[in-house]
Records
---
Amino acid sequence: MLLDTETAMARKTSKINVVPQAILEAASNLFIQRGYEGTTMQDIAKELDISRSALYYYYKNKEEILVSLTEGLTLAAEQLASQVVEKGKAPEEALREIVYQHAKLILYRPVQFRVVDQALGSLPEKQRKIAETARRIVLQRFTEVIQRGIDEGRFRLVNARVTAFSLIGMCNWTAWWFKSAGAKSAEEIAEMLADLSLHALERGEVKKVGKAGLDETLRILEENLSQLKEVIDTQR
């Protein structure tokens, strides 16, 4: 009863003292430093220099904070990837955009992503399934873009699903090494990753005639035939 009274009183001042995004950022930092299990609501309130009642106005426990963090990232990633596919752009443009959007999402919230990645098992079952479904959809959207490029002869013959895993992993890994005060901005790094992804999948053209050009052509043909055999074998 006392807690309810304090919470009601805090409603008049909590919006001035703190906003949900500040709570999520402070909680994320503490979850990384102390671990999810080792962090309390009191720790989060102290980090923000607010009363626990002001914190409870927005979140009744740290589980709700983790749910908010997870949904904010996984559902946003799903929406961004789906929007790219729905635009129906050429495979090259779609690949570049889907990588850029996903990378930028992670680069803007690296600490929060690390928390979500490490504490997924601490979510209630319902929210965990929602997050896992969102992740599967992101993988599916990346795979669709890559496969369409292969089918249209624009990308090399690769395993689309494995390649999608690789590109998503490359984007996600930035959460562990990106520094906002570094030489490159989040947007610049996202652009670089998008370009790298496109260059890795585009079918190269042999521009010189001669032994070097012939060798490269044969190498590409052998690689494509080997990968085509793998695709055929898996479909038997």
---
Amino acid sequence: MKTDKKSILLALLAVLFWSTIGSAFKLTLDFLNYTQILLFASFVAVVFLGSMLLINGRWAGLKQLTLKEVGLSAVMGLLNPFAYYLILLKAYSLLQAQEAVALNYIWPMILVLLSIPVLKQRITLLNIFALIISFFGTLVIATGGRLSTLTFTNPLGTGLALVSALFWASYWLLNMKDKRETTEKLFLNFGFGFFYALIYTIVTKQWIWPGFEGSLGVIYIGLFEMGITFVIWLKALKYAENTAKVSNLVYLSPFISLFFVNIFVGEKILWSTIAGLSLIIGGILLQHVPSIFRQKPV
């Protein structure tokens, strides 16, 4: 299988997993608060990633880490999972799930734009135009179609969701420059993130033991939002020939997510959601126009 095709398939698999997480966040918030979800879900992710290291015989590699690499993981763990999920989960507690889902998905546009000066990525005008179309689609969803006033349901929740997207994009930029083995660096990053979350939980006196429903939620989030899916997405970016093209596939996720939200959370899908998602998909398809015309006729 060609590298670029492998990248796209891995990215689509990650998108499918992430599409269920908006519903998982909202449902789990009925049993635990945002701090507790972060704490227990990051613990699940650490256990999963540590198990992956043991199974693949890479545990011994941790002994060879330099002080610089450990320091990098300390910084990355602060960005994600700690700050990113703390802010995002708080936003979910304030917003409707469909609003939080849509707003969070501006991060690929931030990532692509920041990758121009930081990673020296070559971005064409068509890439930028397609990303703007996709971003406009998320804006239509987030405002419920009220574009003239840009009125959001909850300004604080909206602001937190946008800030979380900036943290996410910043984390991925650092991550793409980090050439360490995927599972190893994720284990360290999430180990530091869990430590920060534990300290924060103790200081703010929010420690409780989750019940059955809460436990199911954090296990699912820890595995399919933080653990397994992170590994898949990192490998997709590693194989990508064009970061903008692969990153834009993430815009499929809010489309799928909103149907899960409708089914499991019970939120009604608005007309503005359908219109916005049509723009998002249009932007994704536009990204692939050059490759279609470059194909040789049979």
